[in-house]
Design brief:
The chain is an alpha+beta fold. It has 2 helices and 2 strands; from the N terminus they run E-H-H-E.
C-alpha cells in the first residue's frame, strides 16, 4: 500500500506479462484495521488501481482484494 508503487509478488508472474489474462490487485494492510477500511478503500485505492494499470501493461485489474468491503462506519462527533 505504497503510493506510486505496484509491487509484484515473487511467486507471481510479472504484472506486465500480457500472456496472462488475470490481473489481481491486493490492497489491504498486513494487520487488518476495520476502522481505517473506509479510508483505505476510497481515493487511495483508486490511485493504486491507476498505478497498477500502467505496471500491468495498460491492463485494468480483473479483481481487487480489499478488507472489510461494504463496512458501514458510524462516526461519533
Amino acid at each position: 500500500m505504497k503510493e506510486g508503487n505496484c509491487p509484484n509478488r515473487e511467486e507471481s508472474s510479472m504484472l506486465n506479462d500480457t500472456s496472462k489474462s488475470l490481473v489481481l490487485v491486493n490492497y489491504f494492510r498486513t494487520v487488518p484495521q476495520k476502522e481505517l477500511s473506509c479510508v483505505d478503500n476510497s481515493a487511495s485505492l483508486m490511485n493504486m488501481v491507476r498505478t497498477c494499470h500502467g505496471t500491468a501493461g495498460n491492463r485494468w485489474a480483473n479483481f481487487l482484494a480489499v478488507d472489510y468491503y461494504k463496512v458501514l462506519m458510524v462516526l461519533s462527533l
